Amino acid sequence: MSLAGLFLITFLLVHLGLNLTLLFDKSREVFNLAAHFMATNPLIKVFEVVLFGGILIHIFWGITLFFQNRAARPQQYYVGNNSQQSVFSKYMIHTGVIILAFLVLHLMDFWFKAKFIGGMPEVSIDGKTYEDMGLLVVEKFKNPIFASIYVGFLLLLGFHLDHAFQSALQSIGINHSKYTPFFKAFSRILAIIITVGFIAIPVVVYFTF
Ligand code: HEM
Q1: Cα of 67 to ligand 1 centre, how many Å?
Q2: Which parts of the chain register pLDDT below 70?
Q3: What are the residue ranges spanned by the domains of the chain?
Q4: CB atoms < 10 A from the CB of 188, how many?
Q5: Residue 161 CA: distances (Å) to CA of 22, 177, 182, 189
Q6: pLDDT tens digits, residue range 4-25?
Q7: How many angstroms is it from 105 CA to the middle of ligand 1?
Q8: Which of 155, 133, 158, 150 is nearest to 21 (CA)?
């Protein structure tokens, strides 16, 4: 579960980097060329299968661990938990399920439409025709309801990630009392970068495009 989670964090960083090009290049050319590359490169197609496999493994083990933990302690403690756990770490399964709902909505919005529904807007770049995936994103986020829904879900993703990285390192055995505070801080910084980066996209598109 941890390895799948670390792999998903890597995907998120790449996904964020590509999506941010939309904000810096309003012609959407860089974004559309990158989206085209991602959709057609054979190596990326293999990666896509691994990605969806990673998502399924992560979800399966997350739910299994949740129920195993509950079965191991059917009654809750009377005394509240005063450990060093962060607030968000107690709600990993809850934020995880909400992120799954987000992912379904998100894939329907873009990926599913491009792959299976069709009718994508098109754009010509250097005489070649490409799908205008960037326009789809911009149109989506010009709608205040969609932009707000994305911001809400992305905040929850941030809470999930706040605990994720350091927890994954601990699970795969990279654990030392001396370094734990460093991993915790790094996990938080990573969560903030990913969350703020993704949230910037609907917000900037809504207000400035
Ligand atoms: C504002 C934020 C985001 C934007 C604008 C965005 C945009 C997009 C677009 C345009 C696609 C379709 C790309 C293509 O098929 O070529 C896509 C695919 C995808 N997105 Fe996002 N995304 C965002 C956030 C997220 C987040 C937070 C997650 C994960 C929790 C995520 C997971 C995915 C996945 C799994 C795919 C399918 C990847 C593939 O198979 O190529 N996205 N996204």
Answers
A1: 29
A2: 74-86, 88
A3: 2-74+91-208
A4: 18
A5: 24, 21, 16, 10
A6: 888 889 999 999 999 999 999 9
A7: 10
A8: 133
